Protein: HNH nuclease domain-containing protein
Amino acid sequence: MSRIDQFASAEARAMDLLAEAAGLTAFALVKRGISLGSARRIARLSSVYFDPQTPFSRHRARCRSIGAHLALPDLETIEGFASKAKTLGGHKAAWELREYLCTLSGAKEIRREGAAKIAELESASDKSLAPKAGARFSRHGDMTRLTLTLDEHTMAEAQAVSISHAKQRSGEDFSKQQFAEAIANLITGADDAQRVETRRMIYAVVPLPELARIYRSEGDDLVVHMTDGTSMSGREFLEAEFEAEGLAALIDREEGPVDLYRTSRFASIKQRLLLHAKSTTCIWPGCNKGAEHCQAHHIVPWARGGPTNINNMAHLCKYHNGINDDDPTKPTGRGVILSRDGTIGWYSPRTGTFIKVYSPR
Ligand SMILES: [Zn+2]
Structure:
């Protein structure tokens, strides 16, 4: 083999050369008689594909085999693109690019494809740039979209306040539209958040029959106790409630079922108020969990057609709501809250025991 052939062969199938140079420094290669410039290039590329210190990498192994045909200058070109890819997309992007370019042959093709891939990575990295703080209202037909972008801490607080406000207005299961309305009303001041918060915290505790009397305007002699420690006469209570929400229609029907509209915006607030009159704690026998921390439970489950009205509702804490045996497909064996002619009780299907926990009269 002539010296020219030897030179050409070493340059043409560079992976073999790099494999032999594995672990050698440029200085060691110079000592073997290679020029400093070539020694540096070989040592650098050898460390990319054959560094014995680097743990096994699937990408590297694949590159060695699919790039076996490549010449040294091709691998140098590839390395130039790989280094840009690393800046744009990290280690993984660099190896994916090496692997792709190693499948090609010819300097021209490698340069063309390398440049195209780098352009792709550049546009992807532009898109993934963190959004800038700002607010934008954009019209879409008769709807307008608000996009609000701020730092994560400010927005975390804004999110918590928005969710809490939406729950106060529309109940735990507020819809997307109700969520948006709650946020918009916070911004416009249509809802005074403080007022709603206060109303949520303060309840009047009135037995249902007394509440019915109040709403029939027979309750002037009654003293209504509020959960903030204050009290008012039945008449004052009636006036206050009429101003706030107009609950009269609901309670007037106490002798029959008291309807709450399933989709009513204020259903949950009314419901909770009424449920507090029914019990100030979880209704499960022996449980003292405060009603404020309870869930409004459907005695006949919603899924089986149970209506959202006061006769079908009771406070249950999260735990007792969880073990309440109301799903025949998943018996818990812990008993179930039932309503018999308006009397609510805990019933054990095993023993047939029925413990009254609430009676409307
Ligand atoms: Zn409980």
About this structure: The first helix runs from residue 3 to 12. Residues 282, 284, 287, 289, 317, 319-320 surround zinc ion (CB under 6 Å). The chain has a mean pLDDT of 78.
